[in-house]
Design goal:
Layout (H helix, E strand, L loop, with lengths): L2 H5 L1 E12 L5 E17 L3 H8 L5 E7 L9 E4 L5 E4 L16 E8 L5
Antiparallel strand pairs: 1-2, 1-4, 2-3, 3-6, 4-5, 5-6
């Protein structure tokens, strides 16, 4: 087992769906989608800590295998504690080349609260 594999955690994509409210209208609900694994690391740089103190949400680096297909503003949940994250970059911007021995990509994400 590689070091990357040891750090991977179970996660699940979340999808926003419209649901009938029973009164002829609709409301939105977030439902679980595709499962995947990711290594989630909090950004503890000085800039991130200063930003958090100024009210910016917690920032993270998410490492996934290429098949996970995370895109800008995708929302996902970490299964172990239910924490919700929203992706703030594109995985295609930082993927390993095809000839690399490990096929991963990274995105940045923020800890997020699902709007009610």
């Amino acid at each position: 087992m590689s070091l990357i594999d040891e750090k991977m955690e179970q996660c699940v994509h979340m999808t926003k769906r419209s649901v009938s409210d029973g009164l002829g209208g609709y409301t939105y609900a977030w439902v679980d989608g595709t499962a995947f694994t990711a290594a989630i690391v909090k950004d503890s740089s000085m800039q991130a800590r200063i930003a958090e103190k100024d009210g910016v949400t917690e920032l993270y680096t998410i490492t996934v295998y290429k098949g996970a297909a995370l895109a800008f503003h995708d929302v996902f949940r970490r299964v172990s504690d239910g924490a919700i994250f929203r992706v703030t970059s594109n995985v295609t911007d930082s993927e390993t080349p095809e000839r690399a021995t490990f096929q991963i990509g990274q995105v940045t994400a923020e800890k997020w609260v699902i709007p009610t």
